[in-house]
């Protein structure tokens, strides 16, 4: 999904180089040296705003030279894969956990933080348990949460609901019941930025979890034969396709862009009643029109429950958070110390709150209640804190190949080019 999309084809190719034998990848030497502790992350987020100061504090306290570098999203992914394949990675690096991190782990490139967390149990306890699954891999822990939590939510225009006399849907049946009522009142029921295929994935992840439970996707991750053919996954996709055929998204969703802001403009302008999006939807709309948000026109709610579904309605899907990991090498211990002492500090966490992010840390209730966006931030925090399961976005949890294929096939499903059974069959074949 946005900011967390699939690894590019170059990265997938280099992933093979990580585990291949009998050949070498000849690339330029590292930009740093053995004495400099390097940190890489993406630009434009809280990492770029907060990390340099934390690195400077660590350098002053320990005497170890620190270097922080920031890159745009897609170039960063390429650069990280190249560095891992060539044996010149940074000492700490930004990531999303899941399949890409596991590939680095299998190649022996990532340090296990579990021993240090056993030695310092308060370190592990600093984080909400529900966000750790993307970095808890094969009995170890290979990263720490450092970014704002991004669950998939239902956003709604309060003015539209006030004018129609409706309430935001709590269940799937309520959602279906509202579609014709909103259409008859002249509103687009749901804004969808289908020009960006990752927007389909939010719906897929949420409905599959509600209908089939988290065990269904876990079976896919575990590589169990026939996992994509699970009847509950097929049922969930039939429900999605039914939603499309009812006109819930209108006729122009395939040309509406989320990344260009068109999806949220439909919601904010009052032309659409609802929008499903990550937690970033709030900050994006706030950036578009802060006054509109402050005046109370924007509402939010969990993704609707599915009557009779196997998934707990309190489960979340999306991006639990982003992570920082340490690589193996001569500066491994220093890198781990930096993660523990600076990037897990109360000061770093408070910095996230001050910039409007909902931190993945335990015990933040009081700080969030005092924040400028207290209503929204406490809502998201309570959801994450109480979630029995917080499923990482599929395009990050899956290996690069299936991650790309799920986006391609979801687009076909929403455009009614394939049916639910064919979707599952295509995904099953691509996962072999």
TrEMBL record:
Q: Which Pfam families match?
A: SBP_bac_1
Annotated signal sequence range: 1-24
Q: Keywords of this protein's UniProt record, alphabetized?
A: Signal
* SUPFAM superfamilies registered for this protein in UniProt: Periplasmic binding protein-like II (SSF53850)
Task: Extract the InterPro entries matched here.
Answer: Bact_solute-bd_prot1, SBP
PANTHER family per record: ARABINOSE-BINDING PROTEIN-RELATED, BLR3389 PROTEIN
Q: What is this protein called?
A: Raffinose/stachyose/melibiose transport system substrate-binding protein
Source species of the chain: Saccharopolyspora flava
Q: What is the taxonomic lineage of the source species?
A: Bacteria, Bacillati, Actinomycetota, Actinomycetes, Pseudonocardiales
